Amino acid sequence: MAWHKVRNEYSKLTLLGVTLLILTGLGSVFYYTYHSLRRDMNLITAKQKNVFDVFYQRAKILEVENMVRYADLHLGQDIPAPVNGLDTDYLYGFDLKTQQRFADIPLQYPAANLLNTFRYALSYPEVNNIYTLWNDHRLIGMVADNNVLPAKLASFEMDLMAQPAWYHYFGCADFAPSRTFCSADEAFVSDIEIDSFSMRNTIVMYFPFIHQSGLGSYKYGLLGINISVDEAFRDVLLPFTNINPTRTAVSFNVAEPCRPFHLCLKKSLMRTKAGTDLYLKWSYSWLDFIKLTLHSAAFEIYLIALLLLMVTWKQLYLRLRTLAHTDHLTRLPRRDILNQRLLHEHDYLMILDIDNFKSINDLHGHSIGDAALTAFARYLKGNIRKIDTAIRWGGEEFIVLFRGMGNDDMMSQSAKRLLTRPLQIPELPDPITFSAGVIRIRDYLTVTEAVHMADELLYHVKQHGKHNIACYEGTTIRLIRPLPDEAESA
């Protein structure tokens, strides 16, 4: 009973250890996946070009007066529509006071060559609109498709000073007399907003300009370049080919909170010409993060390592279990292994006891007694079959379980072979003999009952001269090697 309790406790500890090992491994995989995401974010953002630098360079070569010149040249003229299938750009104009469109002009050549620098900037896929905003409340710009232009610019503020970029450069009292911009910023970058024309998330870069119109008069305004967020930051918003973040965004607000049950990462993506930082933000829901982890190389390595560990652990466990159940002196299994299942896998049980073992210890010493036990264990293993099992039961007692014995006669023959083969070792002058009792294993017998019955037969042999094996023949006890007086009467 005590052994079963220990075994159950050991099984629980083993299960707990395996569970902790699996959970620790999974935790390591999740931790590695998280840091892999951070590393990937660093690598991907390092490759992202700074669109603000790119379009700052483009804006420096754009001459805003060319837009006005081309519009004045073609206003009121009947310009034919472009041939279907041919790409062209359109110059458009809005009156901000009436919010009505006053121009929608396809570019015609050779006059349109003066707008080639605008066409070049508009050819970038991330640019969906380039326009100029004038102090006379005109908005003149270029688009690649005039179908995006509304008939009325309802969403645009008529009060120019209400526009942050306009106020940034022209809102101070000194601007009118000095013609010096209120800010030395090279560009003003808007927040991310929905563009009125394309209805896409857009960042607008504004550049101030002053246009001399002759006779000391001048006009001034802003050059705006609409940058589509989805196009300009495609590589960082859709960074992977398989499982992308649940939510991606670029934002000027670094303190945007993380949603509940989400894993959030953020990193400064680039710096604008106005000196502010644009941040990249990735957010994974717990489900998407688990999916990403399960598809990662780290998880594959974890599974391989876990499989190898399980195979190694099984072999190690079996080895340790064998060592734990093996007698260190005789190298035979200990009595712990004999349970109900093992008992009923065999047909006969024999318990053996070395004769006069106490005398061997007393006369020759315990070292010779140990040599006798070791030699007897080898003797047993050498004289039984591989399918049989020899066990050191304790002290000088041993048990042998026999399998595949069809009847008592077969068992008697095997027992006689054990008796007729003497065991002699150099350390002792006389052969080592043994006494034994053997019983047939019945289905109803427990281990305790079977051993007790065999032990009674062993005791019978000890009372009748030793060096013999007793068994039941019906209800009577029979000795495998007959006594001398029985042999004479026979």
Automatic annotation (TrEMBL):
Membrane spanning stretches: 13-34
EC nos: 2.7.7.65
Gene3D superfamilies registered for this protein in UniProt: 3.30.70.270
Catalytic activity: 2 GTP = 3',3'-c-di-GMP + 2 diphosphate
InterPro entries named in the record: Diguanylate_Cyclase, GGDEF_dom, Nucleotide_cyclase, Rev_trsase/Diguanyl_cyclase
Keyword Membrane set for record: yes
Start and end residues of each GGDEF domain: 345-474
Keyword line: Membrane, Transmembrane, Transmembrane helix
Domain of life: Bacteria
Protein name in UniProt: diguanylate cyclase
